[in-house]
């Protein structure tokens, strides 16, 4: 299937490890040029960038804290200078936040919102004008299964907030041929665990742990020319843990 991604510019936040790394290499395999960032893991990000370049694509790799509006603006400016714009934006940067409500500190509450909600807000505010100029764009956000099955309140709040943000963007920017969708993974194996650490056990109704590549394949489809009529949707890829 021709995805139409060859020569497109794909921006991926949180690209230094796990799903971000796999997504970077998957889009490089489709022939897309890449703008990737991390807040701190530059050694890992540069290694991913070199792997992507070896597949024959161009890569901009920058340190960027998505909670910092000025840093995001500079990252997008560097991307525009290199590629002329952004065709697809994938917001993967996130803060794992699974805290019991009565143990929640206000500082952590604010950090949770800053990374998981304000970060995508900053990225979208900067890339959407570039997409509007082209009358083409794809935005992909990451939600989760947590708000649908009941989980830590702060985590559930931001994940459901991402769904609302996505649907609002889908409606407002549809006239510009910009789609916005989100994916809600559930129980995906992590690749960055130290020896001896284990992924979470299976939950009721879950058939197995998911693989990052299975989620990334859905990203590739939603970013492709074949998904132009799909917008405002949240796909819960969770191995049967929850049906919507």
List keywords for this structure.
single chain, 244 residues, Rossmann fold, seven-stranded parallel beta sheet, 7 helices
Describe the structure.
The protein has helices spanning about 20-30, 40-55, 70-85, 105-135, 145-150, 155-175, 210-225; strands spanning about 10, 35-40, 60-65, 90, 135-140, 180-185, 235. It has about 240 residues and is an alpha/beta fold. The chain has one domain: Rossmann fold (3-Layer(aba) Sandwich). A seven-stranded parallel sheet has the order 3-2-1-4-5-6-7, with helices on both faces. Strand 1, helix 1 and strand 2 (about 35-40) form a beta-alpha-beta unit. Helix 1 (about 20-30) packs parallel to helix 2 (about 40-55) and helix 3 (about 70-85) packs parallel to helix 4 (about 105-135). It starts with 8 loop residues before the first strand and ends in a 9-residue tail after the last strand.
Present the secondary structure layout:
Blueprint: E1 9-12, H1 18-29, E2 33-38, H2 42-53, E3 59-63, H3 69-83, E4 88-91, H4 106-134, E5 137-142, H5 146-149, H6 153-173, E6 178-183, H7 212-223, E7 234-235
Helix pairs in contact: 1-2, 1-7, 3-4, 4-6
CATH architecture: 3-Layer(aba) Sandwich
CATH class categorisation: Alpha Beta
CATH superfamily: NAD(P)-binding Rossmann-like Domain
What structural class results from the helix and strand content?
alpha/beta
Major sheet characteristics: 7 strands, parallel
Question: Ranges with pLDDT <50 over ≥5 residues?
Answer: none
- Taken from the alpha-carbon principal axes, the silhouette is globular
* Chain oligomer state: single chain
Strand residues, percent: 5-15%
Order of helices and strands: EHEHEHEHEHHEHE
How many helices?
7
**Could you tell me the mean pLDDT?**
91
Strand count: 7
- For this structure, the CATH topology is Rossmann fold
The end-to-end span amounts to 28 Å
Count of individual domains? 1
Q: Work out the radius of gyration.
A: 17 Å
Could you give the order of strands across the largest sheet? 3-2-1-4-5-6-7
Q: Helix share of residues?
A: 40-55%
